[in-house]
Amino acid sequence: MRSPALRHVLTHLITPLLMCLGMGLAYMGAFVTPEPHHLPVAVVGSAPQAKVFAQTVKDTAGDKLDVRTVASRADAVHLLKSRDVTGAYVPSAKAPELLVASAASDMGATAVEKVFTPVAAQEGVPLKVTDVAEPVADDPTGQGLFFLLIALSIGSYASVAALGAAGAALSMRMRALLALGVSAVVSGIGVLLAGPVFHLAHHDLAGVWGMAWLYSAGILFIGVGLHTFLKRWTTLTMMVLFVMLNFTSSGGLFRPELQNGFFGTLHAFWNGAGFVEGVRSLLYFGDDGLTRTVWTLVGWLLVGLVVTGIAALYERPRRARHAAGHPGTATGTEPTASPAVTPSEREAARAAEEEAEEAVEEEVEEMVGV
Question: What's the rounded Cα separation, in Å, for the pair 11 and 18?
């Protein structure tokens, strides 16, 4: 290609085009056709009729439902509040009842209601729906936590460009300290949005901040470490890890039982799912399952610390060679001008520095623009 400028532009178009493809595949694959896959439900009753009814529902639904029977309504409520089932049906000839916990998943509650409403209609009676764990009135669908996840994610992975590219001249220790500070600020903004601004969380704001910090710090350390090796491709990598795979598997819109097996599997250990499910546990379900989700976030932070540590070891000899070649940089004294340097060489060095600065600005703009 004859034009360097055109080649430069086309090279930089690779990243947004790959993002377009990846976002389309991820979001449409995860959200366009939600269908139950082994959605766990319960039928209340210990009599033979209840067991026959449960088996009939299972046979009719096939792989869409996993049906169990429980002895009492209280047992069903317990399973709902521990998020072991998505809905529980209480058979009755006069007043059948469906128990749901919409704070766990509004879409899940809607899905089980669609399953059991026709069952009650066959008996010619209306179905009573009882929500045993409702989200707060300020977040009626319970999806506000998903959008909080998006805000935290953007603040975290967009900061990676500034820390990795614009901060490349800083030591890894300094970049790591900045990552700690940025994660504290990002999580603080998240708590302000979740609490005083939009009232998604009416209590335990300290716990929400703690999980937000773990989540943000994990992303920042992974990004800062990866930038040492990936440079301008860090943007695409961060988008894949913390947008395409992260938002789609978080459970913020659809529980894993309403998605295909790929995203359902990621939900078990991905950091976005750890944050969303952890905050749900804290706010609505009496800390049930909170320990596991916190350890998920801790695990991602540990991965980030390891990646950053490896990057620091990789950079150390390069920085030592650079300091040896630039004694003024190493000692803080002014370097002695060499008379052997010609004006053309100085011009070439100046052009190289300008090109490097432009590359940094392009990477920052690319990351923040996304």
Answer: 12
